[in-house]
Amino acid sequence: MRVEVDVPKCVSSGQCVLLAPDVFDQRDDDGLVVLLDENPPAELRAAVRESALVCPAAAIRLVES
Q1: What are the boundaries of each domain within the chain?
Q2: Cys-Cys crosslink for 51: which of 3, 19, 28, 46, Cβ 3.0 to 4.6 Å?
Q3: Residue pLDDT, tens place only, 25-35
Q4: Computed from CA positions of residues 33, 38, 44, 47, in that sequence, does the dihedral angle turn out positive or negative?
Q5: Do 20 and 65 meet the contact criterion of CB atoms below 8 Å apart?
Q6: CB 3 within 8 A of CB 37
Q7: What is the DSSP letter of 9?
Q8: In CATH, what is the architecture of 2-63?
Q9: Among candidates 18, 65, 16, 14, which has minimal Cα distance to 42?
Q10: DSSP string of 17-59?
């Protein structure tokens, strides 16, 4: 799995950070998403999938390999 984020679409809700803090963070100045790990390990993938599902802006895209 590869994670992609569309930063301009992000609305700074922080749901991704709450669900997968090892994969996502937020910028201090505006709260926009920061991708920490574009290829998360297997044990984090369920949380990353949930993050993509609950993102209110649909700013997270998962590319399955």
Answers
A1: 2-63
A2: 19
A3: 999 999 999 99
A4: positive
A5: no
A6: yes
A7: G
A8: 2-Layer Sandwich (3.30)
A9: 65
A10: HHH-TTTEEE-TTT--EEES-SS--GGGHHHHHHHHHH-TT--
